[in-house]
Amino acid sequence: MSEAKGGRGAQLKHTGLRPGWTTGACATAATTAAYTALLTGEFPDPVTITLPRGQTPAFALAAEELAAGHAMAAVVKDAGDDPDVTHGALIRSTVRLLPPGSGVVFRAGEGVGTITLPGLPLPVGEPAINPVPRQMMRDHVALVAGRHGATGDVEVTISVDHGEEIARSTWNPRLGILGGLSILGTTGIVVPYSCSAWIDSIRRGVDVARAAGRTHVAGCTGSTSEKTVVTEYGLPEDALLDMGDFAGAVLKYVRRHPVDRLTICGGFAKLSKLAAGHLDLHSARSQVNKQFLADLAREGGAAAPLAAEVEQANTGLAALQLCTAAGVPLGDLVASRARDEALGVLRGAPVVVDVICIDRAGTVVGRSEPAGP
User: Fold this and answer.
1) What distance lies between CA 127 and its chain's CA centroid?
2) 305: number of CA atoms within 13 Å, CB side?
């Protein structure tokens, strides 16, 4: 991407921080290598995969094992310059052949968690391997099968050395993910966050958008929310601000350097934190307030039993699902309250604000009307 452009790529380049790879990308690379070895007797090393946005990184193998009926390959996770607790973790994939028609079956090996509570993007009892990494592995299994005339029916067991110990430093135990880590990632890339560097990149993004004559910009929490605002409004790349968890940084800079309209788009749970008055949305510095969500649900017409369920929900998504099933517009209520909080930070600056809440798949689950001073 050229220096003249804005958006996520320019922001990352401006920070000077080195990106890394998600656990999902590492698991996909290990799976690709193991399945290839199972079919051919040889491990590709390095092994190249294709990420959801088209990048083609290569991964060196840290361990490999080929035996009758199964193959195992392992990759060391490199999180780049991000202070990620999984940096340096050894991620293994063991692949076994299954009868034709079985498809790709995922198992949680040692160090990978299992879902035990509702409200997450996977059913209770499933390995904590998120939907996008699962799809990445399915796609690469299909590619390898196509190259070698196989059916692609396999069991994939993902494990992480010392994963259960590492998981104690994450939110997994509180979320009911027991036994280890989650295999995560929507793009395959870990975007590194130094608070000062990233906030500086946000400011640069606003400056680039204004210099290009953009009157409508969007602060997005990640790549999925970026796609949503592009679909909703057709915004160009240099109007997209990758704010990550730093909602306050966007609002404070736009207060001093106004644009006509600001859209804030992000996951429902994150934006519920903004609605509750938090300007830093990182899980280490703010949490989803279920009592707050229960109070909002009551404002939206929820009866006492439903409000009590919301207050006891495992996750923000679970609270949203409860209200959606009951016809209570919790998503819209959160979006409207988040917009009002944003307007409060803007302190009368001539900026119209609207907020869009999405789920993990990018589906809009709540939105506010635009409003300004």
Assistant:
1) 17
2) 1
Nearest-10 crossing angle of helices 195-211, 247-256: 40
Cα separation, 364 vs 354, in Å, equals 13
Look-up: residue for tokens 């003249």? 4
Q: Are 94 and 34 in contact (CB under 8 A)?
A: yes
Backbone φ, ψ for residue 181 (5° rounding): -85, 165
**Sign of CA pseudo-dihedral 78, 81, 87, 93:** negative
Write down the pLDDT at residue 354. Answer: 98
Residue 2 has pLDDT above 50, yes or no: no
Task: Tell me what pLDDT residue 44 has.
Answer: 96
The first and second tokens of residue 97, run together, are: 């052949």
Three-class secondary structure of residue 203 per DSSP? helix
Bridge partners of 70?
67, 96
Cβ atoms of 109 and 126 within 8 Å: the answer is no
Closest CA to 109 of 122, 84, 89, 92: 92
C-alpha dist (Å) from residue 101 to 26, 39, 71, 148, 203: 26, 18, 20, 17, 52
With vertex at residue 196, the alpha carbon angle to CA 207 and CA 15, rounded to the nearest 5 degrees, is 65
Distance CA 342, CA 354 (A): 9
> In which residue are the tokens 């940096």 written?
87
Residue 80 has a CB neighbour count (10 Å cut-off) of 15
CA-to-CA dists, residue 350 to 43, 255, 318, angstroms: 59, 8, 36
Predicted confidence (pLDDT) per residue in 232-256, tens digit: 999 998 899 988 888 999 999 999 9
Q: How far is CA 200 from CA 10, 196, 206, 241, 316, in A?
A: 12, 6, 10, 12, 30
As beta bridge partners, residue 181 has 112
Q: Is residue 229 exposed (0-12), middle (13-18) or buried (19+ Cβ within 10 Å)?
A: buried
pTM score, two decimals?
0.65
